[in-house]
Amino acid sequence: MFALTQEQLALQARARELAQSDVKARAAEVDRTEQYPWDNVERLKEAGFLGMTIPRDYGGQGLGWLEAVLVTEQMSQACSVTGRIAVETNMGAISAVMAYGSHEQKQLAARMVLEGDKPAICITEPGAGSSATEMTTRADKRGNRYVINGSKHWITGGGVSRLHLIFARVYDEKGEEEGIGGFLAIRDETEGLKIVGREPTMGLRGIPEAEIAFEDMEVPPSALVMPPRGLKKGFADLMNAYNSQRVGAATVALGIAQGAYQLALDWSGKREQFGRPIDEFQGIQWKLADMSIKLAASQALIYKAASSAPAGGFPDMVMAAQAKVFTSESAIEVANQALQIFGARGYSRNNPVERMVRDVRMFTIGGGTAEILRTVVAGGILNKKLPQTRDGYVKRSAAE
After folding, report:
1. What integer pLDDT is reported at residue 399 of this predicted model?
2. Alpha-carbon span 135 to 393, nearest angstrom
3. 10: closest CA among 71, 61, 59?
4. What is the C-alpha to C-alpha distance for residues 8 and 5, in angstroms, rounded to an integer?
5. Do 253 and 383 fall within a single domain?
6. Which domain covers residue 138, as residue numbers?
7. What is residue 261's predicted lDDT score, i.e. its pLDDT?
8. Angle 242-270/65-78 helices, nearest 10 degrees?
9. Structural domain tally of the chain?
10. Residue 100: which region, alpha, beta or left (left: phi > 0; alpha: psi -120 to 50)?
11. Residues 355, 253 within the same domain
């Protein structure tokens, strides 16, 4: 059992109380209507669960990744969409800006998140998913502006989020590429940022997955988030912030699976067949045992990864990848077994387990597929770069 401090236990208890009341009561409606749960956002805001990881100097609480995980885990047991909001207002785009942004960029991002905005991180394109460096969105330097053209797809929160961190290839005024950079833009304020459409998704229906187009979108140089190593290696630095996002995604999957498991566990003691509760049958007992083992192992990996970050840094890349791969795959298995224990009742849309099975399926895909993250783990344990190219691997240099 991971040892939590008294402060962390109190935070966990507060999150559980909120999740199991208002948040849980609205989860089915959020799924059915496919509407973003603004009222849940307001409750997260009132509870102080937005921007927890933002430094105190910028109005946040200066808490760590583990504290964000504890809140996300509880929210996701009740409502996976609210769990994702908890992740993306504490990790991902906001953490990249707070780590590498200018003072003005940090002020802007912190203010927007603390007011209730969920920033959108714009990396994936129709032709560049796992191979993110093949993106074609470009930012051309023209005088004292950058002009951005291109498109992104599967942007979580597109059409709801206001603050966007947009990744693009950066070209100087001579047309020479300088590297991949991240630019801040605000929906409805930055001209040229257009929401093209919303993807109809299998699960997680209360938070939009959108396609976004940039048509001669002009931003000043101050919109460019510049990591310390500059544009040539800046994309790697910015992607390092994704380690926290992956821990967060794993936590949502864990919470969903925990919720499904608890429902199945309770049901197995109530449902009677052949004159006795079905939890007296060894077949059901073994299912529950395996589910509990997967959940315990997943939680341990997530808590360990969340606690691996140095002061002011991000979770360890390999630990984050391990946690996401194992948890996302285990969570799918747990949710499916929970539905099986309910039998036909689990297949009904009146049963929250049906929703959980759909919601959890996303997490072996989004935020890094299980296949790509296995390559990340392999590269880490072998101390090799393993690009998916015909040229094979390249040994890491001591300077990296």
Report:
1. 46
2. 21
3. 71
4. 5
5. yes
6. 120-233
7. 98
8. 40
9. 3
10. alpha
11. yes
Rg for the chain, CA atoms, rounded: 21
Residue 141: strand, helix, or coil = strand
Does the pLDDT of residue 396 top 90, yes or no? no
Instruction: Check: CB of residue 42 under 8 Å from CB of residue 62.
Output: no
Task: Find the mean pLDDT for residues 304-321.
Answer: 94
Query: CA nearest 141: which of 110, 112, 174, 165?
Result: 174
Residues 101 and 133 in one domain: no
- What are the tens digits of pLDDT across the range 168-219? 999 999 999 999 999 999 999 999 999 999 999 999 999 999 999 999 999 9
- Same domain? For 286 and 388 the reply is yes
Residues 254 and 385 in one domain: yes
Residue 352 belongs to domain with CATH number: 1.20.140.10
For residue 400, is it within any domain? no
Helix (H, G, I), strand (E, B) or coil at 48: coil
If one counts every other C-beta atom within 10 angstroms of the C-beta of residue 352, the result is: 20
294, 298, 299, 300 alpha-carbon torsion, rounded to 10°: 110
The pTM of the whole model exceeds 0.90: yes
Tens of pLDDT along 117-149? 999 999 999 988 787 788 999 999 999 999 999
In this structure, are 364 and 275 located in the same domain? yes
Q: Quick one: average pLDDT of 64-68? A: 97
SS3 185: strand
For the chain, how many residues are written? Answer: 400
| Token pair listed for 268 | 């197995």
Burial code of 221-235, b = ≥16 C-beta within 10 A, e = fewer? eebbbbbeeebeebb
Residue 390's pLDDT is 61
